[in-house]
Every structure is written in C-alpha cells, then in structure tokens.
Amino acid sequence: MESSKVFSGKRIEYIDALRGFTMILVVLSHVAIFCVGAYDVSHYHHYLQQIRMPLFFLISGFVLYKVDTVWNLKHIVGFLSRKFVVQILSTSLFFVLYAHCCSIDVMQGVSDIYKSGYWFTYVLFFFYVFYSIIRFTCRKYEDYVCIVVAGLFYIINWPPLFNSIPISEAIKSILSIPFWCYFCFFLLGTLLRKYFDCVQDLLDRRELIAICVFIYFLLNIYRDVIPGNNGVVVSFSISISGIVIIFSFFRTYQKSFSKEKLLGRILQYIGRHTLDIYLLHYFFIPRGLAQAVTVFKDYPMPVVEFVYSLVIALIIIGFCLLISNVIRLSPTLAHILFGVRKKI
Predict the structure, then answer these.
(1) d(C-alpha 279, C-alpha 117), whole Å
(2) Chain segment 273-282, per-residue pLDDT in tens
(3) Residues 268, 193, 86, CA angle at the centre, nearest 5°?
(4) Which residues are CB-neighbours of 49 under 8 A, at least 6 positions away?
(5) Measured distance CA(291)–CA(58) in Å, rounded
(6) Taking a C-beta distance cutoff of 8 angstroms, is the pair 328, 338 a contact?
C-alpha cells in the first residue's frame, strides 16, 4: 500500500531541516579534515562519518520519488538531461575553477576517486541513471530489482570482491565505483517515501528506536572484536540504525524544525540550498590553517574542537549562501550553475 498523505504537494518541513542538518555535517567534516586537521583524532567524527553520507543519499532518494511519475522514455530523457546539466556540467565547471584556484592538475583530479571533493554529484547522477533504467525496464518488479542491484553494489565494496572486479583501478577511480555502495541508501530513500504511511507507523513504536540505539552503540563499542568487523553487514547495520535514530528525532520534534521556529527556518533554508553550498564551500575552507592549529592533534579536546569546527563551518555556509544569492540574481546563471528552473 503506497502512502497517500505525503503526496499532497506540500514540502515536509522537517525533511528540509534534516537535509540542512546533513549539509552542516558535511561541511563540518571537511573543515575537520582540511582546516583543523583533527579528523582522525576526535572520535565523534568517526560516528558522524557512519551516518552523514548515507543520510544525504537517503534524503536525495526521498525527495526524488513522486507517486504520479511515469518512467517512460520521454520522461527519462528529459529528467536525465536536466540532471546532467546540474550534476555533471555545472559540477565540472566548479571543479575546473577550483582546480585552477588550488593549482590542482585537472586530469589528476578526474582520475582521483574523490574528484577533489566533487565526487558526490557525479555519483548521484549515476544513481539517477541506474534508477531510471530499472524503473523503465522492470516496471512490475522495480522495487525488487532495485533492492537486488543496491545489494550487489553494497556487497562488491567488500575488499576481496572489489579487488576481484575485472576493471582497471584507473576506471574504478574515474567512475568512483567504491561510492556506488551508497545506492542502497538512495534506494531506501525512495522506498521510504513510497511507503511513508507504513514507515511512520513503524517509527511510532518506541521499542524500534530503543533497539536501534542499542545496535548502534553496541556495534561501535565492540566492532574491533567482532569477527569480520569491517564486513558489509556490520557497516550497514551501524549506518541504518544511526539513520533511524536521527530521522526519528527530527520527526518526533518536527515542531521545533518548522518555519515557525528560528532553528527550523535556518535549517530549512540551508536544506533548500544544499547544492549551492556543496559546490561553493570548498572555495572558502582555509586549508593552510591545519598546519598552524596543531593543538587539537597534540592535545585532543573533542568538545572544544567540535565547537571550533562548527563555528568555522557555519561561517563558510553563510558565505556560500551569500554568494549563492548573488548568483541567483541572474536567472540564467542560477539555471546553469544550480539548475534553478527559469520562470516563464
């Protein structure tokens, strides 16, 4: 039974706020890596890493799904054409500009799995392609086929299987294949919205949240002693349980994340401009600062480092939103760079 309540055309406010929260986590982690240099020292980054990208892809899948979408050839061509402009062409423009500003060799950046940080939008476009093909060719069993494909993408990320794939390492890096494991979370987002009424009934059961909290912390505490501790089952269980906890938190306290509250308005505004922030924020990260600020490496202070990194991250996000609004003054630039549809 598909959900009927959520498809009224009205945006779900706490989902926008959740997306904004996830964007803050992304910028925060990049500040910790490139600016503060304490990413491997502070343990809280380890916990955030397990959740932030899976949650980001899950939300991307959630907002993509529309109950009345007919995935015929005409729709797919138009859909992928629009996404190609934003996810590939626009991202490539920012990537080349960023490479020029930071004296990065473009070809070296392309062959790098991380694409100098711009891998997310490329990989997301691949997911749009995979999802479109499956919805077009397997209309009767698309959910089951998606689950099988997502499972395969996640399993092949297991090192023994990944190393045995008959594809050169260069191609694996160019296509960022190791990140294809996130397709399962993207797919989960589409299913979450498709069956949202059932999911909400499930989330109303408090014992589910208690189980997820128990699983998340138990697996993290004893991960080093679990046989095959780097296996896909353990990693997936940690990510899923963490996502359920955060999603349930935002849903339970959704009034605090509504437009009537200051926090809600801020997070929703960030959530509606995640692409702008993602494409722009690398330009504002003061990478050289990590060489000067060594106190967090020499004397780990997680709470202080978190506040310090968060303040820098919020300042960077503020600059990104300012530049974004300037760019959006031109409908043409907004359309080319951020995929904003021109008003007719």
Answers:
(1) 9
(2) 999 999 999 9
(3) 60
(4) 29
(5) 35
(6) yes
For residues 324 and 273, the answer to whether their CB atoms sit within 8 Å is yes
Entry pTM: 0.89
User: Which amino acid appears at position 13 of this protein?
Assistant: E
**Cα–Cα separations (whole angstroms), residue 200 to 6, 21, 193, 247:** 11, 21, 10, 11
- Residue 239 pLDDT > 70: yes
- Asked if 175 and 125 count as a contact pair (C-beta separation under 8 A), the reply is no
Token reading at 130: 């995979």
Residue pair 113/176 in contact (Cβ under 8 Å)? The answer is yes
* Residue for token pair 């490139």: 34
Which residues lie closer than 8 Å to 245 by C-beta, 6 or more apart? Answer: 209, 212, 213, 216
Q: How far apart are CA 43 and CA 54, in angstroms?
A: 19
Question: In the chain, what is the straight-line distance between the N-terminal and C-terminal CA atoms, in Å?
Answer: 37
